[in-house]
Known about the structure:
The chain has helices spanning 5-22, 24-38, 45-59, 62-74, 79-117. The chain is mostly helical. The longest helix is centred in the C-terminal third of the chain and has 39 residues, at 79-117.
Amino acid sequence: MPTNWPDMAEELTVALRDVRAGTPDVMKAFGAMARAALQPAALDAKTKELLSLGIAVAVRCDPCIAFHADAALRQGATRAEIMETVGLAIYMGAGPSAMYAAKAVEAFDQFASRRAAA
């Protein structure tokens, strides 16, 4: 059965509240780093989310795939851009990245379907 990526993201968002409460200084610093890294500058926000998704595939992080597939969609990424992104991740991460690339495409498609239905 395929993973339900939107549900995973929602469940982890709730679970992360405990981490934020238990490590407030660390999570505030992490949030500040994320905002700084994702701030559009030489690269726009969509490009940065595509890079983040490719890295998530290469390092094999399911929750990262969920969050960045959704964020890429929100920044206007297309399925064709997702495919190029996961193609590069496969190149950089070899066989294991190919398996996670399938997860990234599945996640993007589920978020796109949910958005289209709303």
